[in-house]
Amino acid sequence: MPEWNPAVIVINSRQGDGDEVSEQRIKGESLIKGNSVYIRYVEPEHGPTGGITRATVKISPDELKVMRHGEVESEQTFQQGKRLPGFYRSPYTRFNLSTDTSRLEVRLKGPYGTVTWEYGLLVHEEMTGHFAISLHIQEEN
Length: 141
Hints:
Elements: E1 5-15, E2 21-33, E3 36-42, E4 53-60, E5 63-70, E6 73-78, E7 83-89, E8 94-109, E9 112-123, E10 126-139
Antiparallel strand pairs: 1-2, 1-10, 2-3, 3-4, 4-5, 5-6, 6-7, 7-8, 8-9, 9-10
């Protein structure tokens, strides 16, 4: 049975052309399963009614999938050069979305490493924003 490894996950995100980068440092876990690395963590910000959302990220050599469960339910898939469908649901809203990924770079050594990606987010086929994200998975000391 594969074993979850304690990890510190650092997520940096930038929206649009702005210089403003937000950073989140989260305690979570990582696991190697087949040729994929999985990470999971509880999102630090509570949902719209104060509930908890758990995130699982599946990192494959050419695909990244972010799945959220709990108060917020969503799924986003990223593959360089592809527009892929997803969804978002919360107690107050629900909609289909798509990600149009221009860049996806996976650099992992075992259950740790860095993933960076850039994408356009479409809601109801309308471009709503461009994002650049880097995800650093570090061994917990």
